[in-house]
Design goal:
The complex is a heterodimer of chains A (about 180) and B (about 210). Chain A has about 180 residues and is mostly helical. In chain A, about 65% of the residues lie in helices and about 0% in strands. Chain A is built from nine helices and no strands. Among the domains of chain B are: about 55 residues, no CATH class; about 35 residues, no CATH class. Chain B has eight helices and no strands. Chain B is elongated. The chains are: A mainly alpha (about 180), B mainly alpha (about 210).
Chain lengths: ~180, ~210
């Protein structure tokens, strides 16, 4: 990043190659798998980086910083009302139906899990994805989310407990 | 979140229920059922599996990188209008502005003195290499001035004491026959400062 701040375009392209797939995956998960919007957000993030490289303080780690910028960009898209339509779809799922055994396959479990993730609040979803999808440490997640490590642990604890409760009908232990 | 809950969270992430030691299992069962533990761990593993499974499906649009590259290129090459604006809006250090003003005055001064032509010539100039410093110490001494008053008094002069003299026997004009005598006579004056030729002028009728 220092090299890019000194005007080396090759350094920017290297940053893009290193981080863009990972950031896109994170955005995609945060924006409920809307790929076109995810690509737009990714472009916005790197465009900001290209336009204002000196917003980054080189004394800090780049990875938490770029994830913070990306999470904030996702937050703007997250507020779009259209996003919450998925809640209706979830209600259609027969989680407590007597014929639940028919859904006990990986595909159904995956589908429900995805839906449940979209139902999480922004902070909980972001924390959960950063921790278990991006495999970041508690400290890094706390930096990105701009909160304490205790808050991160608490959010993770709540999220896992909530998801487990919502998916209990699938008896995942049998899979 | 209590300390025990944090510990349970770490175990859920890392171990199956069967992998826990009996004491750990006791601690787990004090806070939740075995079924809850399994449920949460399976949910966590399933989420991770889901995240990993979908990761390769998505790749950044190549158009993004190309648009970013073109934007960087535009940014590094400003337009003509922007370049002109940069000339007027650029900031320079104060000393550079001062130097520019001084150089302008020097140029004007040089242009306003026509006809003066400087010819460079070489000459040897010896410069004394003085390495000794002489300190001249002047001491002013004030000396009182003595004034002398002169009073003239009229005093009767003493009688003039003339030395005795011998009168020459003036024989008058001597004949030619006595010319020799005249010469002898002139010589007889003795110690005189006058040369003989001057004395001879007084000789008449020789």
């Amino acid at each position: 990043m220092e090299q890019f701040q000194q005007g080396k375009h090759a350094a920017f392209e290297e940053l893009y190659r290193r981080y863009s797939p990972r950031l896109l995956h994170f955005i995609y998960r945060m924006l409920d798998h809307r790929e076109a919007e995810s690509q737009d957000v990714l472009q916005d993030v790197f465009m900001m980086l290209a336009e204002q490289p000196f917003r980054f303080d080189t004394s800090r780690d780049f990875k938490p910083w770029i994830f913070t910028v990306t999470a904030n960009a996702c937050r703007k898209q997250f507020r779009i009302p259209q996003h919450r339509d998925s809640e209706e779809h979830l209600s259609e799922l027969p989680l407590h139906d007597d014929k639940i055994e028919a859904l006990l396959d990986q595909k159904a479990f995956k589908r429900v899990l995805k839906k449940e993730l979209t139902m999480l609040k922004y902070d909980h979803r972001c924390t959960f994805i950063l921790r278990y999808q991006e495999r970041l440490s508690i400290r890094e997640v706390a930096q990105i989310m701009e909160c304490s490590e205790g808050t991160v642990k608490s959010r993770i604890h709540y999220t896992i407990k909530h998801l487990a409760k919502r998916l209990s009908a699938f008896h995942p232990t049998n899979q | 979140m209590t300390e025990h809950e944090e510990q349970l969270q770490l175990w859920i992430e890392a171990y199956d229920f069967e992998a826990l030691t009996p004491s750990q299992q006791e601690l787990v069962l004090a806070h939740m059922t075995e079924e809850d533990y399994r449920q949460q761990r399976t949910t966590l593993l399933a989420s991770q599996w889901l995240f990993e499974d979908e990761a390769p499906m998505l790749t950044p649009d190549p158009a993004i990188l190309s648009s970013l590259q073109s934007r960087l290129k535009e940014k590094s090459e400003p337009a003509i209008g922007e370049r002109l604006m940069m000339l007027f809006t650029a900031r320079i250090p104060a000393y550079q502005a001062g130097l520019a003003v001084a150089a302008t005055f020097l140029l004007l001064f040089w242009l306003r003195t026509p006809g003066v032509e400087y010819i460079e010539t070489e000459r040897i100039v010896y410069q004394p290499d003085v390495d000794t410093v002489t300190v001249v110490k002047e001491v002013l001494v004030e000396v009182p001035v003595e004034r002398v008053r002169v009073i003239e008094k009229q005093v009767p002069a003493p009688p003039l004491q003339l030395p005795e003299s011998t009168l020459l026997n003036n024989k008058g004009i001597t004949p030619e026959s006595d010319a020799l005598l005249a010469t002898e006579l002139s010589r007889s004056f003795g110690n005189t400062a006058l040369p003989l030729q001057e004395l001879n002028q007084f000789v008449v009728g020789m």
